[in-house]
Design goal:
This protein has 704 residues and is of the alpha+beta class. The strands form 5 sheets. Strands 1, 2, 3, 4, 5, 6 and 7 form a 7-stranded mixed β-sheet that branches. Helix 12 packs parallel to helix 18. The protein is elongated and about 100 Å long. The relative contact order is 0.06.
Amino acid sequence: MTSPGDPAADTRALDAVFTETVRRTGATIGALYVLSPDERLLCLDLLCGAPADIAAPWATVPLSAPAPVADAAREDRLVWVGGEGQLARSYPRTAMVLPYPLALVAAPVTGGRRLGALLLMWPATRPSYMTRREQGHIEASCRSLARLLEEAVRQGRPSPCGRGIRVLPTGAGHRRLGPAMAAADFAERLPGGSCALDLEGRFTFLSGGACELLGRTAGQLLGTLPWQSLRWLDDPTYEDRYRAAVLSREPVAFTACRPPDRWLDFHLYPDASGISIRIIPTGGRPPPWPATRRPAAAPARAGQLYQLTHLAAGLTEVVGVQDVVNLVADQIMPAFGAQGLVLSTADGGRLRITGHRGYDAVTVARLDSLPLDTAFTPAGQSLASGIPAFFATPEDMLRVYPEAPRISGKQAWAFLPLITSGRPVGICILSYDDPHAFPAEERAVMTSLAGLIAQALDRARLYDTKLELAHGLQQALLPRTLPPVTGLRVAARYLPGTRGMDIGGDFYDVIRLGDSAAAAVIGDVQGHNVAAAALMGQVRTGVHAHATLGTAPGEVLSRTNRLLTDLGTDLFTSCLYAHLDLASRCVTLASAGHPPPLVRLADGTTRPVHVPPGPLLGIDPDAEFPVTEMPLTPGLTLVFYTDGLIETPGVDLDDAVAELAGHLADADDRDPDRLLDTLLSRSGTAGQRTDDVALLLLRHVPDG
């Protein structure tokens, strides 16, 4: 008997909804990801249709990763991938580690908040589209899963993240079968039998002919993995063919040599309950078996190679140092079962910690900035020699470094020097709470991965340095603070573009002109580089100089325009200038090809202000800039912006301006700073931006 709120009953309910979804949609593989408590990772909780080791590279997926499940959860939308080609175009990293003909859908599991994502996969033989009925079934199932997950959260149950993958059967028809039933299924699948594997890759049935061809008895092979019990099949190529059959549900074939010179053809026929294999002698005679059959060290398992490929693809996409730290912590640590991480860079003869996980602040402070020749830990010596160091137990460490175990309390360590082009970049230390053996295969994968981390970290450090320099230049050219003007409340925002490390040319300024007047300007220099930023500084200085002389708005733009044409620059600039006369309560506006400002009156009426635009600055030295006047009424709000706020591919600019005006009309205008934040969030500029964004807000608040 179970009572309401019984964890076991709720787990069974979640499992039932999940497996029923997989069965009803006809998917061959299903996976349920749950969002971690810090909302940074998606953790694979439930899996059916495939063994856990195949899914190991995707046991955790960062919410920010370019992957179908991450996009579905992050953007709260259904992601459909109809085949290999679409997967390669839309998700190249995922396609690298899933090079099989298949279709998939990732759907968000969302209730009152984001909870996770559901992943379903089919063979590529299914139609390359999804019907409304199928989509409705999936969305309904996701709502049911969300309710069950929310109930678990309300009852305070621990997050499933970190507890491992639970593999479920897809239904009564897909149960784990014994040898007798597996043989019956096998007989139905193939005209002539040989052997069968379950989805874990283990032998469940062998005919007499199969035993003869393989050179082993059924008792020696049943329940074993072919690449473990048959050493001549211990090659990642053959294991990859099995993986291809499991994931694609398509027949595959390969040829292998049983020593010394007997070549066999293997034909694999998969379905949801297992794989039937027909083994026949090869018709032709391939080259004889080589004399040196095996390398001295055992090759890495195919699963580890896939994991290495997956992580390598992720490292090619990181940008800054923190991205490298996050990827190592979120994917590489779980891949090797580590509980601790220290990532240090070599800087000025010292090891400076740039990221860590699983260590307290006191320990990190003691380990930070140690000299490269320290005897405190093996880190410096390993980096100097370029040779990884592995310590399986505290006793191993004590023999050479007696102080290290007393510092962190860890029980096993892997010190991986990060070397690129013969130059030490830093060191990656993976540590374990319990003793941990490091097999030769695992050491080889870790060592290979260290080289990739080194290259990624070196690129990331260079990027961060350039980005810091670029943003420092950008901020130096923008006003640090805006001057107080009696009768005006002012707020401004500047957001740099998020792609690449370009510097933007957007600028704004407020200029105090005595006790009863002020000027406001916003502009956008063409381009995203140092030249654009330098020209932006010249334009802002020119406008400021002419404005403080009391020059009329149209003439301010004319004189600044002549300055730019005299400089002979190739870059053009849009600009909007406003003179606010607080005594006569009048605003005079002039535009050089800039988007129109928005005005919101005290009664909430909102509209774009029509300002006849002159040409962009820097084109025609004799250009004229017409002016527009409007009353400066109490409570009036003016919003100036650059085109990065409104430009969207395929959207008409007039429609985009009207939409922004609608956001301004609906927003709470009591606090100018919060109003700007609302406009930015509603315009979709909080995520990836290809252009800079500048915003300037002025509200007339008369005395009294």
